[in-house]
Design brief:
The complex is a heterodimer of chains A (117) and B (159).
Chain A (H helix, E strand, L loop, with lengths): L7 H8 L3 H23 L4 H8 L3 H8 L7 H11 L15 E4 L10 E4 L2
Antiparallel strand pairs in A: 1-2
Helix pairs in contact in A: 3-4
Chain B lengths: L2 E5 L9 E7 L5 H9 L4 H18 L6 E2 L10 E3 L7 E8 L3 E9 L9 H22 L3 E3 L6 E3 L2 E2 L2
Parallel strand pairs in B: 2-6
Antiparallel strand pairs in B: 1-2, 1-9, 3-4, 4-5, 5-6, 7-8
Classes of the chains: A mainly alpha (117), B alpha+beta (159).
C-alpha cells in the first residue's frame, strides 16, 4: 500500500505550468531518447558515436539529457549518421495558391493577387 | 537513518512513479527543496517539474536524463541532468525506468558537490537513502509491484 500526501506548494506549481512549455519539454526529451535508442540500436558506445560526430562524449551526454536545444544542422548530421528521421518534411508541397483579382480602375496598376479559396 | 518513501501522485504517471523522502522529523526532502528555491529559482523549479512530468507520463526515467555517477560508483546517487543556463541540482535515486525517489538539492555554486556544504549534505542524505533501500530490496522487505511501476512492502524504512 502506498503512502501518499497532499502537497499544496507542489500542486500550485504544477497547476501553473504552461501547457505549451510542457509540450516543448515532452518533445525535447522524447527526441533525446529517440537518438539514444538509435545509438544503442547501431551497437555504438557513446564514445564511438562522439568520435563519428566529431564531438567529445560529454557533448553527447548533453544531447541525450533531454535539455539540449538542437540546431537543424546537428539534427540532420545525426539523421545521416544513425539512419533515422528526426525532422519531418513530408508535406512540404502543401502551399497556398493565389488567384488574380480583377480590379476595375482607370488607373494603370500592377496586377493584384489574393489567396485562393 | 529512518525515513518514509511517499508516493507523489501528482508527479507520477503511466510511465513512472515518483516518491519523495520524508525524514523521521516530518521534513520531506523534495518539499524542502521546493520551498528553499522557489523564491530565487522559479524558472529552474518549473523546468525540473516539467521534466519530471514528462518522465512520469511520456518517456519513463530514461538513463540519459540523469547524471548517474554523482556519488561513488555503485552508491546509487544520481542527479537530474543539469539544464543548461539553469542553476539547481536535484539529487535522486533512479530505480530502473519506472521509479524515481527524489531527494533534495540546491544551487550549484562549485565545480564538485563535495566543495559545497549544502549540496554535500543533500548528496550524502540521498546516498544514505539509496543504501537503505538497496538493503531492503536485497532482504525482500521492499520490492517492485507486479507491473514494476511501484514499490511495495515496507515503505517506512528503519535500518
Amino acid at each position: 500500500m502506498s503512502i501518499t500526501t497532499n502537497n499544496t506548494l507542489l500542486s500550485e506549481l504544477l497547476a501553473g505550468i504552461d501547457p505549451q512549455e510542457q509540450a516543448k519539454t515532452d518533445k525535447r526529451m522524447t527526441l533525446a531518447t529517440k537518438i539514444a535508442n538509435a545509438i544503442k540500436s547501431k551497437g555504438l558506445k557513446k564514445k564511438e558515436f562522439a568520435e563519428r560526430m566529431g564531438k567529445v562524449p560529454s557533448e553527447i551526454s548533453k544531447w541525450l539529457s533531454g535539455t539540449h536545444n538542437f540546431t537543424t544542422d546537428t539534427l540532420m548530421d545525426i539523421e545521416a549518421e544513425l539512419g533515422i528521421k528526426l525532422i519531418n518534411l513530408d508535406n512540404w508541397t502543401n502551399y497556398e495558391k493565389f488567384e488574380k483579382v480583377e480590379v476595375k480602375s482607370n488607373i494603370k496598376q500592377a496586377p493584384i493577387y489574393r489567396l485562393a479559396g | 537513518m529512518n525515513f518514509t518513501l511517499v508516493k507523489q501522485s501528482e508527479l507520477s504517471g503511466s510511465k513512472a512513479t515518483v516518491y519523495t523522502v520524508q525524514l523521521s522529523d516530518g521534513i520531506d526532502l523534495f518539499d524542502q527543496f521546493l520551498k528553499e528555491n522557489i523564491g530565487g529559482y522559479h524558472e529552474d523549479i518549473n523546468d525540473i517539474l516539467q521534466r519530471l512530468r514528462t518522465i512520469a507520463t511520456k518517456t519513463g526515467a530514461q538513463k540519459n536524463y540523469f547524471k548517474l555517477r554523482e556519488g561513488k560508483p555503485g552508491d546509487g546517487v544520481s542527479a537530474l541532468y543539469d539544464s543548461p543556463k539553469k542553476h539547481l541540482r536535484l539529487y535522486c535515486v533512479r530505480m530502473g525506468n519506472s521509479v524515481i525517489i527524489l531527494g533534495g538539492g540546491g544551487p550549484k555554486t562549485t565545480r564538485t558537490y563535495q566543495e559545497d556544504p549544502k549540496l554535500n549534505y543533500e548528496a550524502n542524505l540521498i546516498k544514505q537513502v539509496s543504501k537503505e533501500i538497496t538493503e531492503k530490496m536485497n532482504t525482500k522487505y521492499l520490492c517492485f509491484s507486479d507491473d514494476e511501476l511501484e514499490l511495495e512492502g515496507e515503505l517506512v524504512i528503519t535500518p
